[in-house]
Design a protein that fits this description.
heterodimer, A: about 110 residues, four-stranded antiparallel beta sheet, globular, B: about 120 residues, mainly beta, about 0% helix
């Protein structure tokens, strides 16, 4: 089973800042990583797939990078609506599909 | 616009059963694999099960094998999760999600809460 580990657990940033969220896989998953955004009381929303391809409607201030075991989601010019929890997910080796434990992006 | 709407959640005693439903619209349901994912309130996401587009295979996370059954009715655009022998640790919000591409999840339903409690 592939374990996905996200860091940090919480990231305190201010609007306008740049935020980088990290995700590490316990074994190589190629570029088979997706990122999701979840706001309180809402379902997760796909942001990124293939490690670096933006989903439809994902703003271009979001960018993804990485391959193998180390991945990152970068948000440039943070806006108020970006404060949420972000999850990475691998779909290379399944079952099971696995998610990271999440990074909460909070307003400093 | 693809849309998924779950229903069937509620409160059930340990050892009891519940069937969740997920109604799909806005896309060719029969062409897509479908997932169930759950989330304990305030915690992270846990994948539960997947069924292929034609229902010829299913896979489960270990903790639900032998207790949960995923199924679908392509004629009705419906996905189901039959949950038997429920435990307190099954308490969670259950989301259905469409499998896209080689394995990401998009879109997700709004979720339905299952509470297992005596």
């Amino acid at each position: 089973e592939v374990v996905m580990t996200q860091s940090p657990a919480t990231l305190s940033v201010s609007p306008g800042d740049r935020a980088t969220l990290s995700c590490r896989a316990s074994q190589s998953v190629g570029n088979n990583v997706a990122w999701y955004q979840q706001k309180p009381g809402q379902a997760p929303r796909l942001l990124m797939y293939g490690a670096s391809t933006r989903a439809t409607d994902t703003a271009d201030r979001f960018s993804g990078s990485g391959s193998g075991t180390d991945f990152a989601l970068t948000i440039s010019g943070l806006q108020s609506e970006d404060f949420a929890v972000y999850y990475c997910q691998q779909y290379s080796n399944w079952p099971p599909y696995s998610f990271g434990q999440g990074t909460k992006l909070e307003n400093k | 616009q693809p849309q998924l709407v779950e229903s069937g959640g509620g409160v059930v005693h340990p050892g009891g059963s519940l069937r969740l439903s997920c109604a799909a619209s806005g896309f060719n349901f029969k062409d897509y694999g479908m997932h169930w994912v759950r989330q304990v309130p305030g915690r992270g996401l846990e994948w539960v099960a997947i069924i292929r587009y034609n229902a010829n295979s299913e896979y489960y996370t270990d903790s639900v094998k032998g207790r949960f059954t995923i199924s679908r009715d392509n004629s009705k655009h419906m996905l189901y999760l039959q949950m038997n022998r429920l435990r307190s640790e099954d308490t969670a919000v259950y989301f259905c999600a469409r499998k896209k591409g080689v394995g990401w999840f998009d879109p997700w339903g709004q979720g339905t809460l299952v509470t297992v409690s005596s």
